Amino acid sequence: MATSNTSPAPSxxxxxVKMGVFTLVIMNIVAVVSLRGLPAEAxxxxxxxxxxxxxGIVFLIPVSLVAAELAAMFPYQQGGMFxxxxxxxxxxxxFLGIWLxxxxxxxxxxxxxxxxxxxxxxxxxxxMYDSHLAANKYYTIAVVLIIYWLATFISLKxxxxxxxxxKVGGLVGTIIPAGILIVCAVIFLCTGGQxxxxxxxxxxxxxxxxxxxxxxxSIFLFYAGMEMSGVHVRDIKNxxxxxxxxxxxxxxxxxxxxxxxxxxxxxxxxAKDINLVQSLLVGFDNYFKAFHITWASxxxxxxxxxxxxxxVLTWVAGPSKGVYAVGKAGxxxxxxxxxxxxxxQKNILYIQGxxxxxxxxxxxxxxxxxxxxxxxxxxxxxxxLVVYLLMFAAAIYLRYSMxxxxxxxxxxxxGNFRMWLIAGVGFIASLxxxxxxxxxxxxxxxxxxxxxFGVLIGGTIFxxxxxxxxxxxxxxxxxxxxxxxxxxxxxxxPEAQAQLKKAAEEFxxxxxxxx
Length: 515
Fold this sequence. Notes:
18 helices
């Protein structure tokens, strides 16, 4: 791929706001941790921790370590997943990777925002009315669209705004509520409260129940997103050191929040009464009733809704930014390359918003909000798992195709055995989860099975094929003069090699200036 070598030197550019480790840690936690997922695993009691730890070992740790190595390996090259996969397997599969990451996040927004709508429904004091309001499809659609478009308008303000809102929202709406939920469980048990969870139950799940395995395997994607911040690598202070550090800290905090948070919810709500959409708010409400502080329920509901806004904001500003960088390199028509004066990908965000709006109205056609929630969640799982399969394979391949490249963070000091082990385990885990994600969970009324399989199989095939169609009709005129996309290492043209050298020198100079 031919690219322009006319990118301006750092000295002529406006200095952007650089994120530190703490901000990136919070953004990583917010991108991965959604308290909305706790009810799904609280059904399994003590064995839920087994699933969390297993998924942490075979999925979260591999994702975190591989993403840390790849991001540190390409600290000044744009594109995130597009760069990582494209450096290994070429531009077509690289484009598929960033495309699916963007598409799955777009499909995911209505599901996570449904949780935000439920949170806001519980700000009243009449919880019978609140429950009915939370189950109302039209109320849910209205709130989903309001929160989403608010996140979009904040994103249009630039990364400075995104970082600030994500950091505050992550603390107030995710980390602090998780801490409160866990502390409430401890106080409840220490003051004689009766646990609804059997702490003498088996830690090892009942693998004879196939339906339990199907629903539980979705926990792998509870940990998805730790690599997403790779598209912001050029917005991070000292990225070769701070990015891996932030990813690893975020991964450890994520496991802790999920395990303890799920147990805390299981303590206060019987497994048979757990609802995937509403039970987190019901759990808080039950604790607050036990402590005679029911006035705190509306406060925690508002905080959780704010946390949803922060999580959505992190994702709105992430994959779309990667698609924008790829588009500017000539892979998308000029319409997708338009930015506002803050340099934010405005047209991509508007198109994404239109898609989210349409999906939100599709909710009306489903048997229930919960069924809509689950089928879209499964489709996002399938698409995202394809991305992870590409990422793990690329990490191994690059150990051979770019064996002499600098790796400031490296899995294993010598040789490739540890990379094969870590990325290989992640690949197998992702493939296993991909297969199981096609099976409908028996716990949820999905309507007809043909709808379930039709949406999942048809949706997966459709979204995988689309990027190849786009590339088939790609026009050389799409590439804008003066774009700053750094060429792939395998592009041996004199122009590309000169630009690679120049970009490396500029990065070294900028790093020295910031040291």
